[in-house]
Amino acid sequence: MKKNLDTFFKPKSIAVVGASKMSTKIGHAALKNILISEYECKLYPINPKEKQILGVKCYAKLSDITGSIDLVLISVPAMIVPQIMNECVQKKVKNVIIISSGFSEIGNYELENEIRKIVDGVKINVLGPNTMGYKNASDGLDASFVFGNPRKGNVAVISQSGALGIGMIYLANNEFVGLSKIIGVGNKLDIDDDDLITYFSRDPETKVMGLYIEAVKDGREFMNSIKDCNKPVLVVKAGISEAGARAAASHTGSMAGSDDIYSAAIKQAGGIRCRDIVELFDMARALAGQPPAQGNRIGIISNGGGLGIMLTDACVVNGLKIPKLSKKTYNKIDRILPDLVKPNNPVDLVADAGFYRYEACTRALLEDPGIDGVIVASVHGGYARPSEFTGAILKMVRERKLHEEFKKPILATWVGGKEFEDIVLDLKTAGVPIYPSTWRTARAMLSLYLEGERIKREKGLD
Ligand code: ACO
């Protein structure tokens, strides 16, 4: 039975134990983040020495609050946490986030076990210890102590590392990838990755999940949750090398496990393993905004032969196919291209290609039943007109009818300098999946193909 996390992510009342007037303390930041959230709830700072903090009435202990409490954030030194947890249990609190560090991650298993015993058999969800908490961008609630406002979107991120989780907020913002929720799981005493995958699979605000993990507590549950999930699950698994595994052990007390076994198990369950978090967001951006590919046959268009060849290689190395053009498509493209070149896949539009060649050729490839996805590329060569390339991409990706008609993904690649970068920014803000690397584009296309395969399996079509 998976956890019910409705009141965890959408609490009607929140208490912060260890709330402080001192602006440098974590308990102060946690209270302030909730206070400035655009989220309606009752808020109770808990501190035995204070009457009010940040203008909010303060309580000496949880039992002084008359109403029920959906969520408690704990930010007191580790040694006091068991006492607070006992108070939470007595008060019948539904959910707890233990921000405090000083447990299994530093070898203090006894203290963590003490908390485990306190909640054993009790109906309570516990996040952490050693966690940043979460940011629920869908509902506007920040139940963490860290800075960073995620752009609202449909990617849910689960991170075993708090600091990396914060970094991922900034990275996602920079890449114009919107998040639904981001959560740090810390030492995973209770709420585990599988509980969250199951929750997010039912969350209407989430379309794609991304995980950073160092180890999982229960491999079977983890794999089953991915298997049962009706959405793409992207996984960055760290601690691959011996030295990396040692670092993971001292970071979150994790036993990294065999990398090959993780890879095979994630693949078998239908998840997609990413090499790092940049790749995770590359894939998330494609999956969040594009239809999955129904197969692995990719059409490539570029205005530079070299760029087309590199894309072809990157696709083939990643298991995608670059088929020869059908006679019909060859003839269509032949009419679009200038006389000095003949159609091929990759299609070379020639350096001076403008809006018409890009748009007409992409359409010709989309219309080809032997093509499952299209990559459109531009290099800022001598005659190239980047704004016409980006204009054509923007038109095609925005043209909803095109997606509905063909149900094929379109990704973009570019090679150029500052003036190109500014135009690419416009595309990114419009949600267009465009990448400054042939490799990254091919990997993003691979994720769309794998998602297409997962959906076929889900529907029993393969
Ligand atoms: N009930 C309520 N408040 C209490 C209680 C109690 N029983 N006992 C003490 N307090 C108050 C304290 O008086 C203090 O308030 P004050 O500032 O008014 O005096 C407040 O609670 C906090 O207690 P401190 O002893 O001052 O502890 P401090 O805030 O310095 O540290 C903390 C507590 C933040 C939990 C620390 O022990 C810790 O674990 N820090 C690391 C947290 C962390 O990084 N977590 C991982 C996140 S993931 C990432 O890396 C981003």
Task: Summarize the structure in words.
By secondary structure, the protein is of the alpha/beta class. The chain has 3 domains: 1-130, Rossmann fold (3-Layer(aba) Sandwich), CATH 3.40.50.720; 150-289, Succinyl-CoA synthetase domains (Rossmann fold); 291-458, Succinyl-CoA synthetase domains (Rossmann fold, 3-Layer(aba) Sandwich). Helices cover 42% and strands 18% of the residues. It has 17 helices and 19 strands. The protein has helices at residues 6-9, 26-35, 81-90, 109-119, 162-174, 193-202, 219-228, 242-252, 259-269, 277-289, 305-317, 327-336, 355-367, 386-398, 400-406, 418-429, 438-458; strands spanning 13-17, 42-46, 52-53, 56-57, 71-74, 95-98, 125-127, 133-136, 141-144, 152-159, 179-184, 208-213, 233-237, 272-274, 298-302, 347-348, 373-379, 410-415, 434-435. Strands 9-8-11-10-12-13-14 form a 7-stranded mixed beta sheet, with helices on both faces. Helix 14 (386-398) runs parallel beside helix 16. The longest helix is centred in the last third of the chain and has 21 residues, at 438-458. The protein is elongated and about 85 Å long.
Brief rundown of the structure:
With 462 residues, the protein is α/β, with parallel strands linked by helices. It has helices at residues 6-9, 26-35, 81-90, 109-119, 162-174, 193-202, 219-228, 242-252, 259-269, 277-289, 305-317, 327-336, 355-367, 386-398, 400-406, 418-429, 438-458; strands at 13-17, 42-46, 52-53, 56-57, 71-74, 95-98, 125-127, 133-136, 141-144, 152-159, 179-184, 208-213, 233-237, 272-274, 298-302, 347-348, 373-379, 410-415, 434-435. The longest helix has 21 residues, at 438-458.
